[in-house]
């Protein structure tokens, strides 16, 4: 009897931070992994090596998620990688890639707003649309939101607005892709110690202590707290979970 291939998960922005952790978490769960990177090629190659050391296949493909005009060419790169692995589909897509802008509502520029739209809303919308022919029926899509879509902190109005839009989009994707058996959920991390936003939560001791004091579990989140959540949503046991917002914040600002 032929052994079925490992599930294959594509994660955007997988060279560092939460994306790297997600990639390693799904690899430990037995998935082959495709990650994307924009400029951190060496870091992406290191993640590929870590996944291969776990016994899974991995590859890194360049992608600027802020340039939707390049999505068709990226899909062809995915097809080429699939062909090299003698496959024709990916099983799961995780729309993780992102960037942050910290600016008060009154000070946010149109350029900053447009950049956030391109990366956090236009990319998950049109990249997913472009990749639909390559996603297997019965597959999963995981989008990424933020705790900031639930609670309000000054300086994140534009960023949080994009994440709120993604939460609505997730429900529509789940509704419209249900006929293919594709489940779509969205994970909303709280404050995490990464280099996001210049690493403020990680490096600013006063901010770190404040966040910990406002979190029910008494600490700031770590990347490991998020990767496992995404991996669990891609596991067979979670197949009936659909159109849900899962906040992973340790109970922040309850």
Q: Beta fraction of the residues?
A: 15-25%
From the N-terminal CA to the C-terminal CA, the straight-line distance is 52 Å
Order of helices and strands: EHEHEHEHEHEHHHE
Rg over alpha carbons: 18 Å
* Residue share in helix: 40-55%
How is the secondary structure organized here?
Layout: E1 8-11, H1 17-28, E2 32-37, H2 41-53, E3 58-62, H3 71-84, E4 90-95, H4 110-131, E5 135-144, H5 157-177, E6 183-189, H6 200-203, H7 205-213, H8 224-233, E7 245-248
Parallel strand pairs: 1-2, 1-4, 2-3, 4-5, 5-6, 6-7
Helix pairs in contact: 1-2, 1-8, 4-5
What does it look like?
By secondary structure, the protein is of the alpha/beta class. It has eight helices and seven strands; from the N terminus they run βαβαβαβαβαβαααβ. It has a seven-stranded parallel β-sheet, sandwiched between helices. The longest helix is centred in the middle third of the chain and has 22 residues, at 110-131. It is globular. The mean pLDDT is 94.
Write a compact overview of the structure shown.
The protein has 254 residues and is of the alpha/beta class. It contains eight helices and seven strands, in the order E-H-E-H-E-H-E-H-E-H-E-H-H-H-E. The model has no long low-confidence stretch (mean pLDDT 94).
């Amino acid at each position: 009897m032929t052994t079925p291939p490992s599930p294959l998960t594509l994660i955007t922005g997988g060279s560092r931070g939460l994306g790297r952790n997600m990639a390693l978490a799904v690899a430990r769960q037995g998935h082959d992994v495709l990650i994307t990177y924009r400029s951190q090629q060496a870091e992406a190659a290191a993640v590929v090596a870590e996944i291969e050391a776990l016994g899974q296949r991995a590859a890194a493909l360049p992608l600027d998620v802020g340039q939707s005009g390049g999505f068709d060419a990226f899909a062809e790169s995915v097809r080429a990688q699939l062909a090299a692995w003698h496959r024709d589909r990916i099983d799961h897509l995780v729309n993780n890639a992102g960037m942050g802008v910290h600016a008060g509502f009154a000070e946010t520029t149109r350029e900053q707003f447009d950049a956030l739209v391109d990366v956090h809303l236009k990319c998950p919308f049109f990249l997913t649309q472009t990749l639909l022919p390559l996603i297997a029926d019965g597959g999963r899509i995981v989008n990424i939101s933020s705790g900031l879509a639930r609670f309000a902190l000054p300086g994140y109005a534009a960023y949080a607005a994009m994440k709120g839009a993604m939460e609505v989009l997730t429900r529509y994707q789940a509704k419209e892709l249900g006929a293919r058996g594709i489940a779509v959920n969205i994970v909303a991390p709280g404050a995490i110690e990464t280099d996001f936003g210049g690493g403020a939560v990680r490096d600013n001791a006063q901010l770190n202590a404040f966040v910990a004091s406002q979190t029910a579990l008494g600490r700031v989140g770590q990347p490991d707290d998020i990767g496992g959540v995404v991996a669990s949503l891609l596991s067979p046991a979670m197949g009936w979970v659909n159109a849900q917002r899962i906040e992973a914040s340790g109970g922040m600002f309850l």
